[in-house]
Amino acid sequence: MLYFQLAMGLTLITAFLLHGDDFLLDLYNLWKGVRPRRLAEKDVRYLEGLPQKRLALRSPCWKDAQTLERMVRGNLQSLRYGNYSVFLGVYPNDLPSWQAARRLEKDYPYLSLVLNPSHGPTSKAQLLQEMIRQILESEEHTGLRHEAFLVQDVEDVMHPLSPALLNHALEEADLVQLPVLSQPLSWSQWAAGTYADEWAESHLRDLLTRNALGAKLPTSGAGLALSRTLLLSLLAKGQLFTGAEAAEQYARRHASAEAQAKTQAETQAETQVETQAET
Asked: Is 97 helix (H, G, I), strand (E, B) or coil?
């Protein structure tokens, strides 16, 4: 009996050490009432009535020809926002993606193809940096000035209100991470389901809690927006990205060094969130 009690005690202590931080976060959320909330219609009208900043939506592409046109057309038809540009980054040795991006460029006057001078694949970080360089150069010729730069993967399904939410959040923040969630999965997709659960926990609980505590926010390789002020500040100090950096890490190290940059996670409503199919 004594050995059984010792084993149970050690099991409980181990479980608390491994998962105690999650338990404390849950207690804090219950105490403070931190949870996603659904926007009322008046909130939606408020968001859509704000002056619209010019947003640059960037999607790096590699071997995405099968999904590129369908996903881009679907997103652009649903967005409830009017002041943005779309940039699709492609490689010269990925002809099918280049051709799909060219067809989209002909159909949408606010969409531009960005051709990487390097043959692919390189890295997501390298392509994103090249896209930034070419976007800033194009502003000198078009006269358009983008106030924020958003990263979206080609396979992302954007919520129609996500640009309007960013437009509002960027009034107070230089870095905004939109929630990224998985589309519903079959019960038999165990590996994908585990991945989806981790995303849901990170973006529906951790983002909210860290934002409420004023702590550093985790960022991901999609749904991340930088204000023009922060972007130019980071560029002035050196490369925003380095080719060796992983996509999920590209903003963390640099943004954390920007002492004056405010961060904010806008995870207030189920109707606000952006969803991403992760399979």
From this structure: helix
The CA distance from 264 to 208, in Å, is: 9
Q: In this predicted model, what pLDDT tens digit does every residue of 144-189 receive, in sequence order?
A: 999 999 999 998 899 999 999 999 999 989 999 888 888 888 888 8
pLDDT digits (tens, 9 = 90+) for 18-74: 666 677 777 878 887 888 888 899 999 999 999 999 999 999 999 999 999 999 999
Burial 107-133 (b: 16+ CB within 10 A, else e): eeeebbbbebeeebebbbbbbbbbbbe
Cis peptide before 121 (omega within 30 of 0): yes
Total count of residues recorded for the chain: 279
Q: Enumerate long-range contacts of 127-133, CB under 8 Å, 24 or more apart.
A: 127/60, 127/62, 127/89, 127/91, 128/58, 128/60, 128/89, 128/241, 128/247, 128/250, 129/239, 129/240, 129/241, 129/243, 130/89, 131/58, 131/60, 131/87, 131/89, 132/58, 132/231, 132/235, 132/240
* Exposed/middle/buried for residue 156 (C-beta within 10 Å: 0-12, 13-18, 19+): buried
What's the pTM? 0.79
CA pair distance 73, 59, nearest whole angstrom: 13
- The 3 state secondary structure assigned to 24-53 is HHHHHHHHHCCCCCCCCHHHHHHHHHCCCC
Measure Cα distances from 238 to 129, 157, 175, 254 in Å. 12, 33, 18, 10
